[in-house]
Amino acid sequence: MKSIIHNPFVEYGYKGAQYFCDREKETKEIITDLQGESNVALISPRRIGKSGLIMHVFDEIKKLEPETVCVYIDILNTRDINQFINLFASRIIGSLDSLSQSLMRKVVKFFGSVSPVLSFDELSGTPQLSFTIQPNQQRQTLENVFRYIADSKRRCYIAIDEFQQICEYPDGGLEPMLRSFIQFVPNAVFIFSGSEQHLMEEMFLSAKRPFYLSSHITALGVIDEAKYLAFANGFFAKQKRKMDPDVFHGLYQLVDGQTWYVQSVLHQLYEMDDQPLDGDLVRMAVDYIIGRMDVAYSNYYASLTDNQAALLRAIAKEKCVKAPLRQEFLLKYSLPAASSVRLSLKSLEKRQMVYSLPNRGYVVYDRFFAIWLCRL
Question: What's the whole-model pTM score?
Fold first, then answer.
């Protein structure tokens, strides 16, 4: 049964194919790769729609292969190998089997000395599995998880989102460990999704790294403007409204076609259902969204040093800066010496306030924050 929601322009999560815009080519390519036993490395900045695409792929696969197990794991908030193993094991075992007391007896026997504990989330009531893992037990425990997958003999497609996070773990060593286990699990195929392009490319394209050429690389770009407009007007038609191509072009250009930001403005426009879809209404919608973020953006800005703040404002005003250390740019915005700007740029990149677009230059990560900065 198709889900029915009040606002069809979904900002968070995945609500079904009818609310998912385009990505037909990417969906077909990823499904073909998975069915052909090829792992996939899916790379793009945040808020382009990687997670939604993975959910859509899994939704389509379930129609084609009802018995296949699809597992999505977001590891962005994990901080070390133990947290990764706990999350990975819990999601895998919970997807292959229903968590229960009888399963716990099976898991205890399977994992032995790592003392699995079954608990329940206080808010959702969802069962959760966790392990007490000593440093000298990490490799064996992870190997047991992969052995659990293999022993199930069920075909599995497993997506690990924000995969570059494993590079940040202080204990290190997970990358070669994972690679050594993954290649010997014949019934599982993986999607490795990441938003930090330079780290993901280094992981999968450097001959020095364990995952070198282990996956088909898929770089996710923006949705085609014409297709996005047709998608939007398909829903606006239900309100007896229509957005002019020039108006949509202005919105699309304002946020560089980035999926989440386009979707967020369309979501707000859909709520403003008693007004014509013109440029003035788009500006009102953007103002409303940015106004709701004002406190957060003020706090982000206040946390910066003077040099970082000045550089971030300058990049926001230029929209995209190919050579931020060039004298012309420094003079235009009264920025300090190139050495100081270089340090500020590294700090802003580390905090993910700016990132570099291939062959284009540096942009402010949050497009609404960039608009807020330009209004200071």
Answer: 0.91
